[in-house]
Recover the amino acids of this structure.
């Protein structure tokens, strides 16, 4: 079977949580600092080559880089650049991960102008220091989910509290995303863009069939606002196109399948075994078919001891989607190193590596071995490397290997995640 090259050097990817939101009662937060990721950058990136992972999602913290309008200090990410070069890891850079500089109105033209200027400067900075191409960028992380948590639930800036504001905020983020992509491509025409949002499914409560229309709107309209604008299917005046959307990133967690709560607050996740749950394969196929662009599972993970079983489930579901024609280029196991619950500050135990706080305050990284073992199983099954050699970019992923394995296994799309 003739080789068909994938976009990325390895099929399994990873990444690091990097939010910089202005968080309700706490003010500006830097989750990378909370994880001690700047301090442990070399160790964190060093986790990946022995796992056969050559790609990692990483963030450039806009609010920390642009302290004054138009003045940028990117030195905060230099430890990442050094570690990426040392360990031969290709980054997918996120330019706005739930945070923007103080004093900006995200619905304003000034917001678009400032983001474009920063995005172009950020892209040039990392491109000039990149050890390998192409430059891969996620302009705005999860604009649709950010729309909810910042535009309707008031968890973080801009602290909106209505569905109407949430939709305006999400659309504004997509508009800024489009403008930034064009500004970057004008300077660096080979840049690849990954546009990431969650896969969700929303159903009405069993005792409230009258909420079926609202649930349907969240699942089939609101979930796609940003992708629709960036692809040009909605608000074509902003200049979106399917070519510009480039690569789709689908984030998938168990809590993304929900019962509609009535608006103004988060929906209620469906419990495992609920017959209203849909298979991940169905969700992947449905979202991909709308745009038919190359895609990745851009974030996924189970929790605690269930991480290895979740990896089995998500890989099987992804391969079932490949058998249905979905153009899948990778699965991102996120995060590489554990992250905290944003509200409670407790460790979620969802990373490839957990953390343990030592008496001196250092956060020690500890790989979760059952997760690592299942990763190796799937790498071998898919004929992928289990650890990186000196040049992980010399032989691209052969997607026909993935397709052949999917055809051999014939996994069944399964809604039972228990």
């Amino acid at each position: 079977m003739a080789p068909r090259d994938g976009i990325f050097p390895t099929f399994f990817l990873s990444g690091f949580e990097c939010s910089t939101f202005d968080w309700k009662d706490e003010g500006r937060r830097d989750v990378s600092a909370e994880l001690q990721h700047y301090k442990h950058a070399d160790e964190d990136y060093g986790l990946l080559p022995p796992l056969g992972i050559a790609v990692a999602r990483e963030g450039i913290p806009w609010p920390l880089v642009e302290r004054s309008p138009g003045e940028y200090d990117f030195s905060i990410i230099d430890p990442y650049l050094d570690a990426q070069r040392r360990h031969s890891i290709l980054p997918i850079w996120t330019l706005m991960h739930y945070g923007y500089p103080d004093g900006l109105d995200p619905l304003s033209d000034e917001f678009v102008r400032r983001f474009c200027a920063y995005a172009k400067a950020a892209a040039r900075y990392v491109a000039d220091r990149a050890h390998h191409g192409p430059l891969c960028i996620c302009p705005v992380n999860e604009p649709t989910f950010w729309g909810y948590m910042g535009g309707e639930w008031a968890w973080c800036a801009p602290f909106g509290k209505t569905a109407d504001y949430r939709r305006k905020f999400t659309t504004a983020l997509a508009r800024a995303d489009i403008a930034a992509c064009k500004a970057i491509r004008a300077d660096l025409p080979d840049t690849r863009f990954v546009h990431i949002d969650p896969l969700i499914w929303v159903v009405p409560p069993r005792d409230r069939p009258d909420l079926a229309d609202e649930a349907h709107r969240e699942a089939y309209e609101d979930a796609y606002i940003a992708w629709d604008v960036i692809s040009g299917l909605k608000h074509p005046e902003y200049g979106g196109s399917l070519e510009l959307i480039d690569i789709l990133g689908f984030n998938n967690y168990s809590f993304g399948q929900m019962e509609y709560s009535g608006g103004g607050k988060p929906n209620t996740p469906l419990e495992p075994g609920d017959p209203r749950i849909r298979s991940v394969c169905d969700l992947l196929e449905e979202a991909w078919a709308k745009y038919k662009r190359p895609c990745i599972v851009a974030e996924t993970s189970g929790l605690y001891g269930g991480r290895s079983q979740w990896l089995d489930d998500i890989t099987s579901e992804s391969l079932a989607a490949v058998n249905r024609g979905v153009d899948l280029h990778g699965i991102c196991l996120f995060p590489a190193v554990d992250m905290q619950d944003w509200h409670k500050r407790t460790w979620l135990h969802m990373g490839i590596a957990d953390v343990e706080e030592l008496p001196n305050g250092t956060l020690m990284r500890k790989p979760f071995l059952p997760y690592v073992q299942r990763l190796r199983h799937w790498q071998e099954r898919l004929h992928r490397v289990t650890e990186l050699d000196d040049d992980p970019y010399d032989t691209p992923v052969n997607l026909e290997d993935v397709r052949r394995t999917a055809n051999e296994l014939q996994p069944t799309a399964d809604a039972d995640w228990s």
Remarks:
- The CA atoms of residues 21 and 27 lie 8 Å apart.
- The mean pLDDT is 97.
- The chain has one domain: 12-409.
- DSSP finds 14 helices and 15 strands in the chain.
